[in-house]
Amino acid sequence: MRKIAPFIQTLICYLFIVLFIYAAVSKLIDFETFQTQLGQSPLLASYAITISHGIIAIELVTAVILMFERTRKLALQISLFLMVMFTTYIVIILHFTAFTPCSCGGVLEKMGWTEHLIFNIVFVGLALIGIRIAKSSQTWRGYIIEQTTLTIIGVVSVTI
User: By the 8 A CB rule, do 91 and 74 touch?
Assistant: First the structure.
């Protein structure tokens, strides 16, 4: 397992790089629509302009820092945080609002909300695996506490 772990981690990083660059570029290509859809969201309307710029910037910066070995641990943590936040947003939209605009871009926009939720959960799992490989010297207890704390912060920040 130790021999393939670096390959798995690299593969996970590449998947996130493709995901974040694709999502950011798709949003940039149709930026007005992206901002409009965020503005229609019952949860994000008040912050649509700030969030629209922020999400794109964070996705691109995260994709870049995933490329470098020195910053991969941090980038995987950011990836987990983003995916937890996006997943929490989908759960809230699905269960607590009547109107569900999709502010994703490209192929992701074509998915139904349930498929999108499953997609995000898979990427949350991939981030957790990548982080565990990156922090293999950390105890399981420390890893669980750290990732649980990060997940709770992500859920709470979207919920508030």
Answer: no
The CA–CA distances, whole Å, from 139 to 1, 73, 132, 145 equal 17, 15, 10, 10
Q: Taking the complete model, does pTM exceed 0.85, yes or no?
A: yes
φ, ψ for residue 3 (rounded to 5)?
A: -75, -35
pLDDT tens for each residue of 30-63: 898 888 888 877 667 778 888 889 999 999 999 9
State how far the Cα of 37 lies from the Cα of 44, in Å rounded to an integer: 9
Domain ranges for the chain: 5-159
Contacts of 103 (CB under 8 A, 6+ apart): 27, 34, 37, 38, 41, 44
CB 158 within 8 A of CB 89: yes
